[in-house]
Sequence to fold (498 residues):
Amino acid sequence: MATSDSVDIFVIGGGINGASIARDAVGRGYSVALAEMNDLASGTSSAATKLVHGGLRYLEHYEFRLVHEALAEREVLWAEAPHIIKPLRFVLPHHKGLRPALVLRAGLAMYDYMGGRRLLPPTKTLDLTKDITGKPLKPGYRLGFEYSDCWVDDARFVVLNARDAADKGAAVHVRTKVTSVRRDAGGWLIELDGEAGRQSVRAKLVVNAAGPWVDHVITGAMGRNGAHNVRLVKGSHIVVRKLYDHDRCYMFQNADGRIIFSIPYEDDFTLIGTTDEDYPGDPKDVKISDAETDYLLGAASEYFAKPVTRDQIHWTYSGVRPLFDDGASAAQEATRDYVLKVDGDAEAGAAINVFGGKLTTSRRLAESVLEKIEGVLGAKGKPWTKTSRLPGGGFEPLAFDAEVRRLGMEYSGLPGTLLRRLMRQYGTKARDVLGDAKSVDDLGRHFGWDLYAREVVYLVEHEWARTAQDVLWRRTKVGLRVSAEDVAALEAYLASRK
Ligand code: FAD
Fold:
């Protein structure tokens, strides 16, 4: 472990929280190492609804601090990563018997004005008998509200944070498990087991950002007595063939008081989710149940004119929210806010345990962790991420289409759909992926859909991709489109490069 035998800060976990903390810390001048036991974003951070949002529904739970912070983050993150983050419009059809129209309008007015909106358009009222968004719905919906939030490619959000951290000098170890964290001479001795075999690293401070495994790290690797801080709440999504032709999302209120979203997904699909139920199992085994599938199909079919059926399901995914256990009775009521707990001090060695949080608040969570770190290790640098750019994000938020056109002029021999996908994923770094390619023949071996060896090699060399799953489901979503033979060919190709 050449670069990180001894570091200021060791981060456990390569989800959005760990990656954001590592990035912020190394950017302030601390020496940092991070270990992720599987692939980056292989835990909860690739299983989200993928919204950068204030969380309209959290207003009902009086989570004003969270909503305020999250709303303000929408445009901060959009500016930071205008390739992987984009604005969305959500339509909320109103009908009698659920939340009254006045309450919804008031909630949306708060939503509009609490969050420092500059570029995102405000809420408007819709006549669903005339607006295009009324078309796919059952007849009878007249009144709707349309409001703004943003979309993020969650897994790429993690990888780009990790990439930026590594570019600034952090040591990022994937497929490397932290097996032991013990106090040692005023700091910590951390044992790792992974790609490079078994190793030890010394650190002055440890950040436990292990998501659903945070208590497990406390009681296991750290050897502490029973920790019961985290409430594991499962959420599942289904992906069906595109249900409608416009680009708006829906927020549907259900009779049980919950809401689900219907979101245009990867051009040809619609994403429907999510569920909310306590999860007693092992986070790595989480998957959708029949009951959740029925729930999502039933809730969507309450609204869409054409019922959504099982045979339309193309893919499903599930994740576990690592919420702070605030004792709420129902899973959907447990706080979505984050909680940081510091254990120890500079003399004895300090550990910061991270609970909860959202993709949306990950940058702010990292700043809060850095405040705690400064309290232990002394200040270094200043908060810097608010006006920063993630790799590939060096253009204005509203300039995405212009950037695609520019790339098209530079690579006129390549298909426009491929260039658009690459701009969405890599932003200005699409040029690093494509290099001097003039036509698809220059992109190397074809692995199905629009995936070629040149991109795969880029992902291995710059984004820690190791397996076909990493490439097809986290660095890209090409997995939605390829055959089992393509997957096997990609797996063999990756193995041959090791
Ligand atoms: P994780 O992403 O799980 O990362 C923790 C990592 O630690 C894992 O990759 C794990 O492998 C690693 N790890 C664990 N133990 C060890 C060890 N011993 N050694 C090394 N590595 C270890 N948020 C939003 O903002 N918008 C949304 O729309 C949204 N929708 C959601 C929908 C669902 C269904 C769910 C489940 C969550 C959603 N969230 C959303 C919340 C968001 O996804 C999570 O808050 C966030 O991903 C948690 O990130 P994390 O880094 O804490 O955990």
User: Anything to note?
Assistant: The chain has 13 helices and 18 strands. The two ends are 19 Å apart (CA to CA).
